[in-house]
Design brief:
Chain lengths: 101, 221
């Protein structure tokens, strides 16, 4: 396993942090955009851009809703995204184990 | 370290993108730990709030009734205010931490929170029913302490089961033991048992949580 076999969607550090954060939630849990932004300390624009790429890859599910009159956006990792993250993490561990070889 | 930096991976590189596998794994675990600690209530704070409330409140009750008289009104107020303060700390802190999340965990947390509220509202009704039958101060004191500990104990058993936390379940067992001892000892010792075993139980769990948080932090260094 070499680095160029790693999942390109998750490999960018900003998206890796986003996916790691969402993977820390339970499979049935969603997080609001402002809360996710606070956990990542990213700008709203930057976070939106990366979330769109993750959504396009089918890794993140975006739900737009209303709470009272305020629009709210909730994010969650899809099953596919969770599996991709698990594979990515396993690949990193393999890379690390292969260090001395 | 294995670094194939000469083989482009097809992603945006440059800047902090040049991270090796070890750094990436650390990034993942740091971010996940931060996420969990920011979304879950801080157990240390909640145990400290409840431990202090029970310790101060029930010691005041015991101190003013240890000669066999009824507890002083100021002691009753101290216990009441301490418990209301602990409820406020718990609710505000938990709601802040879990705000902005929804789904299975948020639902389970809300149901658990309401369970506490329903339990104590029911206890209040039972005590009022007993007062109406003409129960004296001693009977009310023993029943109130026993019921309070019974509710706390059973809620922690439920919490340990729902959140799969052994320490929470163990605290539940401890609180049921406290309920039994506080009831069998009777007045005035019942209030001392509530302060030392009950309040002490919360404070001990707070200390255990603090040690755990520190260890978890050290592991990641």
């Amino acid at each position: 396993m070499s680095e160029n076999e790693l999942d390109a969607v998750i490999h960018a550090p900003a998206r890796l942090r986003i996916v790691a954060t969402l993977a820390a939630l339970g499979p049935g849990d969603e997080i609001a955009f402002p809360k996710l932004r606070a956990l990542l300390a990213m700008t709203a624009g930057n976070l939106s851009t990366h979330l769109r790429k993750l959504e396009d890859a089918g890794y993140v599910e975006v739900t737009k809703t209303h709470e009272g009159r305020t629009p709210a956006t909730y994010l969650k990792l899809t099953d596919r995204g969770r599996a991709a993250f698990r594979d990515y993490r396993a690949a990193l561990s393999d890379l690390l184990k292969g260090t001395g070889a | 370290m294995s670094k194939d930096h000469d083989t482009p991976s097809g992603t945006e590189r440059g800047g902090d993108a040049e991270l090796d596998a070890a750094a990436r794994l650390r990034l993942i675990s740091d971010q996940q730990q931060l996420t969990r600690s920011m979304l879950e209530p801080d157990a240390r704070l909640l145990y400290l709030a409840w431990g202090a409330a029970w310790m101060v409140g029930y010691l005041a009750m015991w101190f003013t009734s240890r000669d066999g008289s009824d507890p002083a009104p100021w002691a009753g107020w101290t216990l009441g205010i301490a418990v209301v303060a602990a409820i406020a700390v718990t609710m505000i802190h938990s709601i802040r931490r879990t705000a902005g999340t929804r789904g299975t965990s948020a639902r389970a947390g809300a149901m658990y929170g309401w369970g506490w509220m329903l339990g104590f509202v029911t206890m209040w009704a039972i005590l009022n029913g007993l007062i109406r039958t003409g129960a004296d101060g001693e009977m009310i004191a023993v029943t109130a302490n026993g019921l309070a500990c019974l509710i706390v104990g059973l809620m922690y058993l439920a919490g340990g089961m729902a959140f799969q936390e052994d320490s929470l379940y163990a605290l539940g067992v401890w609180m049921l033991v406290t309920a039994a001892v506080a009831s069998l000892v009777g007045v005035p010792g019942t209030n001392l048992v509530m302060a030392l075993l009950g309040g002490g139980g919360f404070l001990t769990m707070g200390a255990v949580s603090a040690v755990r948080v520190r260890r978890r932090g050290n592991l990641d260094v």
